[in-house]
Amino acid sequence: MAEDSQGAAPVNDAASASMRIASFNINGVKARLPRLLEWLSETRPKVACLQEVKSQDEGFPAEEFAKIGYEAIWHGQKGFNGVAILADGIKPIETQRRLPGDDTDEMARYLEADVDGVRIACIYLPNGNPQPGPKFDYKLAWMERLRDRMRDLWALEVPCAVIGDYNVIPQDKDTYSVRAMANDALMQPESRDAYQRLLADGWTDALDTYNPRGGVWTYWDYQAGAWQRDHGFRIDHMLLSPELADRMVAAGVDKEYRGHEKASDHAPVWFEVSRQPASD
Fold this sequence. Notes:
- This protein has one domain (15-274): Deoxyribonuclease I, Chain A.
- Helix content is 24%, strand content 26%.
- It contains eight helices and 14 strands.
- One of its GO terms (molecular function) is double-stranded DNA 3'-5' DNA exonuclease activity.
């Protein structure tokens, strides 16, 4: 566990008894590659989902991850978006590329795979700004499509996690300033309602489970000294199916990595689950 991680609960000292699954909006896999390799080597998650890879498929640096033992699948796009799933010592088995429900949507925002007995969906949900407007409409439509897909995953009755950058601030407790974010698409009632519907369907918000009072951020803007002033908010989420939530033993944010040189504007988030379902 990283020394400055937020929101963690005590975990079993036996590393083999738990499995860490993480998410990191890397904000450019090539630009942040040293930071990404540093984080992977130091924290060693079994699975790492990446967003905003900002690389075409042929330019994705898979060989660099292979050098430290990670195999990868990815769905890239030139200059922006892009998602990837990395796994330590095992190849992710791809189950879905692109979010179903709109054949005209070619944005690289969704990738799904099976890893070590867990179905993992890596998402980069649209930002939606400026709102109102077509970008916000696209965000809300995307969230409805995501809900449909999550219903399909739910029906499988398997351990499943849908994790990544949701671009939604769920509640007032999840931002440093309600006033500063009041007009942002991330905090509009429609965005929040769409997120709450996912929870109402039975999914568990891992970070919120361990931080019910809020005040834990996953993103700090590069501007206005946001990091130095701790002006952040929580938009990177990990939603777990009951089959996985029942095995959760910890969750947190590797906050200190946001403070490193040439860091992403997001910090990695993670949760840990026991490798075997808890006994009755």
